[in-house]
């Protein structure tokens, strides 16, 4: 009994810590994003990626397996979880629940697919593309903090041995953060959007921390 209460207390303490961190960081992130225009970076990144064919190499051999995993996860998720979640969300979102439930199931499927693909299929490709982009932009000094560089004809060809990987296994704190954010989907319309943004911020930070450690 005492052991169970100890586990519950530990989870509660972790949950409170996560909520405090996210509230404090959210205020800073919103303010900084509004001033810097960083919300445009994903769009710029998409155009940059598609206009530089050399960066495609790491992904080409992994497209098939990744799509197979995505379909193998997303289809069963819609078959088995869409209607139960719709029945719950319709009470808070009304007719809009049809659309917000789709977003929720897609996000859940994306999370599961991401865990599988990131750890078993796409890990090296993501790392090579991230570092290759930095090399293409002339930030070789930054890349050298995390891996060796060698002579090559293109950004990907210059990438050598990895010295420091940004990809850690999902920690208990990361899983707890996901579960805490999940109820945001009960907020009509904006809740699902906020949930996706918070998850994206957390995942992106884990990659950037490898070459740009957070200031203390």
From TrEMBL:
The portions of this protein that span the membrane are 63-82, 88-106, 178-198
Does the entry feature the keyword Signal, yes or no? no
What's the protein name? Answer: Outer spore wall protein RRT8
List the InterPro entries: Spore_wall_assembly (IPR052786)
Q: Give a GO cellular-component term.
A: ascospore wall
Is Secreted included in the keywords of this UniProt record? no
Organism per entry: Gaeumannomyces tritici (strain R3-111a-1) (Wheat and barley take-all root rot fungus)
| Keywords, sorted A to Z | Membrane, Transmembrane, Transmembrane helix
Q: Record's superkingdom?
A: Eukaryota
